[in-house]
């Protein structure tokens, strides 16, 4: 099955290279190991993360696509759905049955018809619209709810940081 | 070949997308349809269903037993393959392989990309091959090029009547997509049979086989194909029946081995290995049952072995290692410790600053107490808490813990009083000195009293009480922390009263709060409690309350934290001071303290999340 995982990852890599979605770049860190990818995500326009380029790491299991990959931002992030260590908490990355927050419907979780591209697009929309119902970062969720200006200020700081401006 | 055709004819891309399996993202192999009308490769969907009984696309509950072969999609796939092969090759001598045979060959090499053609038969006419694909049999071309071929400039249509007729028949062709010419008996691709027939009828003498009196110009190729298919599969694998579903968990080791032996599989390894091997084989076997040209048992066996090997050497281990959650309290403690040591300098700076400021005020030991005043709360701690309400809870928890731990270790069993009192000295110092300055200015006709010793005792009592209650509330081991930094204590102080009030509810959570902030996913509960520190947010709406009551009210309104009852804690705090003494602070005290807390915030006291 590792063979099929590899084939599928190669197919996805090809797909992403040939038809890259806007604002997303992804590919294996090392072509020797297709199970670890790096992705660059640009902050969606019109949001507080606009202009930022956020690097993330994706790690695929050997039974991919039966199991979802894991994703972790390698830069500093302040977002309700991103843990302090950068791990992304988003329903598309949760295998059905594994429901840490206990509210996700089965339809929006991982299934083998999802793909890296869909994950990354989901993350982009997550950046644009945080879900403060499931706080991976409680402080960020709270601030998002109660003090949007301060949240925006911090987000802007992070954006500048990812661009190496501060 | 796919690349070329896709580039020249973009429509093929569309076609490929439609014929892609959603799971493996490749052209479907042995398509099966689910009860919810989604089509996947047989092996892909079976693998998925061995874990979860739901459709990957629509999440409908489906079962392996309801999967049905999707014959028509299979035929479309074969037809598309043939067309592509024709277009991809220079049409002068297209080699049309049996698609099913091609599939079959590829399946044998499960680890190879499906689109790669494996050379299994030596090319019959290598000279005209432009691509790497082996030519199996020279076949006839259609006399009239199809519109597709005409559009495709590379294709050079070579209508060679008679000359191209194959003389040697390739016997290892599976007849699934080849049909014998009704006239001469030559086996060829079904799509070519019509044009061949025309020619064949014109030159009957050149044919060696018997002539047919009534040639059928319209060959029902589909029917023939299906007949050929069924006959073929029946021949090659007459006994391939799907393996019945087993309840793997109920099988004994012996039964598992028996099953494995039945199919000629290895019986080495522990139970889990055997089980996964059996499962893998059953999935593969049942998928092959859907195939028009199933593999033989030995081929399947080989595949299972290869899969197993690949799994063993895969990156499974690194996957789990890469993201580890630290459930280990020791690690979390270490992280906290590290943080504290990192921030120690800034804390120290703050403390020094405060001390320096206080040097100018002479009456450090003096504490003002208004006995009669009931209007205000009398926290022994600094005032700016209202602006930081939710923050101190976790802090206090830790401060408590550490203090408790300290006292436990230091005094070795003899719990508290002095240990705690001395530990809390710094706080007492700072807060008191602050208060004293306030009161010096303000209280002219109030009774002055030095309550230094008293208040310290009070605090000691507080500590004991709190420590006990904490112990009761939480029996878990209190992490040994470095001596809690004074600045932290300073802040945490204010929440202690509140913490006491809410202890039974909040203590376990707040105790784990810090660790959660660092590594662990917070529970929803914590979020709802609003236990997060909002130091960052509060630093923005920092203000100097010129009138204390107003300031409190404002901050109450401004910060709709879910813990508004910190303000109600004043009665409780008065209870905590058994003497009924009430400290009073004035504006300047507030000012200084808010500045202090502000400083702490800026110095990274609340930017835990970023730093880690």
Automatic annotation (TrEMBL), chain A:
CDD domains in the record: UBCc_UBE2G2 (cd23796)
Active-site residues from the entry: 89
EC number of the protein: 2.3.2.23
Swiss-Prot/TrEMBL keywords: ATP-binding, Nucleotide-binding, Transferase, Ubl conjugation pathway
Positions of transmembrane segments: none
GO terms under biological process: ERAD pathway
Catalytic reaction equation(s): S-ubiquitinyl-[E1 ubiquitin-activating enzyme]-L-cysteine + [E2 ubiquitin-conjugating enzyme]-L-cysteine = [E1 ubiquitin-activating enzyme]-L-cysteine + S-ubiquitinyl-[E2 ubiquitin-conjugating enzyme]-L-cysteine
Keyword Repeat appears in the UniProt entry: no
UniProt cross-references to SMART domains, sorted A to Z: UBCc (SM00212)
Tagged with keyword Ribonucleoprotein: no
Protein family: Belongs to the ubiquitin-conjugating enzyme family.
Subunit structure: Interacts with AUP1 (via C-terminus); the interaction recruits UBE2G2 to lipid droplets. Interacts with ubiquitin ligases AMFR/gp78 and RNF139/TRC8; recruitment to lipid droplets by AUP1 facilitates interaction of UBE2G2 with AMFR and RNF139, leading to sterol-induced ubiquitination of 3-hydroxy-3-methylglutaryl coenzyme A reductase and its subsequent proteasomal degradation.
Protein purpose: Accepts ubiquitin from the E1 complex and catalyzes its covalent attachment to other proteins. In vitro catalyzes 'Lys-48'-linked polyubiquitination. Involved in endoplasmic reticulum-associated degradation (ERAD). Required for sterol-induced ubiquitination of 3-hydroxy-3-methylglutaryl coenzyme A reductase and its subsequent proteasomal degradation.
Protein's UniProt name: Ubiquitin-conjugating enzyme E2 G2
Chain's gene name: LOC117640026
Automatic annotation (TrEMBL), chain B:
GO CC terms in record: nucleus; Rad6-Rad18 complex
Superkingdom to which the source organism belongs: Eukaryota
Domain SAP: residue ranges: 248-282
GO terms assigned for molecular function: single-stranded DNA binding; ubiquitin protein ligase activity; zinc ion binding
Entry keyword DNA damage: yes
Record keywords: DNA damage, DNA repair, DNA-binding, Metal-binding, Nucleus, Transferase, Ubl conjugation pathway, Zinc, Zinc-finger
Location(s), subcellular: Nucleus
Region (Disordered): 110-141, 206-239, 353-574
Name assigned to this protein: RING-type E3 ubiquitin transferase
Gene responsible for this protein: LOC117654400
């Amino acid at each position: 099955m590792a063979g099929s995982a590899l084939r599928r990852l190669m197919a996805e890599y090809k797909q992403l290279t040939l038809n890259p979605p806007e604002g997303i770049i992804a590919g294996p860190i090392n072509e020797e190991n297709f199970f670890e990818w790096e992705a660059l995500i640009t902050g969606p326009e019109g949001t507080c993360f606009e202009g930022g380029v956020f690097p993330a790491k994706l790690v695929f299991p050997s039974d991919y696509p039966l199991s979802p990959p894991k994703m972790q931002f390698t830069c500093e992030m302040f977002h309700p759905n991103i843990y302090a260590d950068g791990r992304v908490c988003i329903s598309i990355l949760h295998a059905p049955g594994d429901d840490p927050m206990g509210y996700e419907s089965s339809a929006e979780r991982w299934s083998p018809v999802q793909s890296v591209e869909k994950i990354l697009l989901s993350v982009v929309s997550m950046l644009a619209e945080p879900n403060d119902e499931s706080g991976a970062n409680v402080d960020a969720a709270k601030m998002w709810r109660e003090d949007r200006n301060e949240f925006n200020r911090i987000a802007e700081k992070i954006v500048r940081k990812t661009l190496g401006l501060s | 070949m796919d690349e070329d055709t896709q580039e020249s004819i973009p429509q093929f891309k569309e076609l490929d997308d439609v014929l892609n399996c959603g799971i493996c993202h490749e052209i479907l192999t042995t398509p099966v349809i689910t009860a919810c009308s989604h089509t996947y490769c047989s092996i892909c969907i079976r693998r998925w269903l061995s874990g979860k009984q739901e459709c990957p696309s629509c999440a409908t509950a489906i079962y392996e037993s309801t999967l049905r072969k999707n014959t028509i999609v299979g035929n479309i796939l074969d037809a598309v393959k043939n067309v592509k092969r024709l277009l991809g090759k220079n049409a002068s001598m297209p080699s049309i392989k049996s698609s099913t045979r091609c599939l079959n060959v590829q399946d044998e090499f499960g680890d190879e990309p499906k689109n790669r053609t494996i050379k299994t038969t030596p090319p019959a006419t290598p000279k005209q091959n432009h691509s790497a694909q082996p030519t199996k049999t020279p076949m006839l071309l259609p006399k009239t090029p199809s519109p597709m071929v005409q559009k495709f400039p590379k294709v050079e249509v070579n209508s060679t009547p008679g000359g191209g007729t194959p003389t040697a028949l390739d016997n290892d062709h599976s007849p699934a997509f080849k049909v014998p010419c009704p006239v001469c008996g030559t086996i060829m691709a079904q799509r070519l049979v019509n044009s061949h027939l025309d020619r064949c009828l014109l030159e009957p003498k050149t044919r060696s086989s018997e002539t047919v009196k009534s040639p059928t110009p319209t060959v029902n190729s589909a029917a023939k194909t299906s007949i050929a298919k069924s006959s073929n599969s029946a021949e090659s694998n007459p006994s391939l029946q799907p393996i019945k579903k087993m309840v793997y968990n109920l099988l004994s080791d012996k039964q598992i081995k028996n099953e494995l032996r039945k199919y000629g599989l290895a019986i080495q390894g522990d139970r889990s290995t055997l089980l996964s091997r059996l499962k893998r084989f059953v999935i593969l076997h049942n998928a092959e049952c859907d195939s028009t040209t199933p593999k033989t048992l030995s081929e399947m066996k080989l595949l299972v072995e290869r899969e197993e090997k690949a799994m063993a050497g895969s990156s499974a281990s690194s996957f789990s290692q890469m993201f580890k959650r630290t459930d280990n309290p020791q690690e979390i403690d270490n992280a906290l410790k590290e943080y504290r040591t990192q921030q120690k300098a800034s804390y120290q700076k703050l403390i020094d600053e405060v001390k320096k400021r206080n040097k100018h005020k002479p009456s450090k030991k003096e504490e003002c107490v208004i006995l009669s005043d009931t209007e205000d709360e009398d926290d022994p701690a600094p005032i700016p808490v209202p602006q930081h309400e939710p923050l101190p809870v976790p802090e206090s928890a830790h401060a408590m813990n550490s203090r408790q731990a300290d006292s436990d270790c230091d005094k070795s069993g003899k719990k508290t009083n002095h240990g705690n009192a001395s530990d809390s000295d710094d706080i007492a110092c700072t807060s008191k000195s602050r208060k004293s300055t306030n009161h010096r200015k303000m209280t002219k006709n109030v009774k002055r009293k030095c309550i230094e010793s008293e208040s310290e005792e009070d605090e000691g009592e507080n500590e004991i009480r709190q420590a006990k209650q904490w112990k009761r509330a939480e029996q878990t081991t209190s992490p040994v922390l470095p001596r809690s930094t004074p600045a932290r204590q300073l802040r945490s102080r204010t929440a202690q009263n509140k913490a006491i009030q809410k202890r039974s509810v909040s203590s376990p959570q707040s105790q784990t709060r810090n660790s959660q902030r660092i590594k662990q996913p917070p529970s929803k509960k914590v979020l709802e409690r609003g236990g997060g520190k909002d130091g960052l947010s509060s630093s923005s709406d920092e203000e100097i309350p010129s009138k204390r009551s107003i300031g409190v009210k404002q901050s109450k309104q401004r910060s709709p934290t879910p813990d508004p009852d910190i303000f109600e804690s004043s009665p409780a705090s008065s209870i905590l001071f058994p003497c009924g003494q009430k400290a009073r602070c004035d504006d300047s005290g507030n000012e200084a303290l808010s500045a202090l807390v502000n400083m702490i915030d800026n110095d990274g006291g609340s930017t835990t999340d970023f730093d880690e």
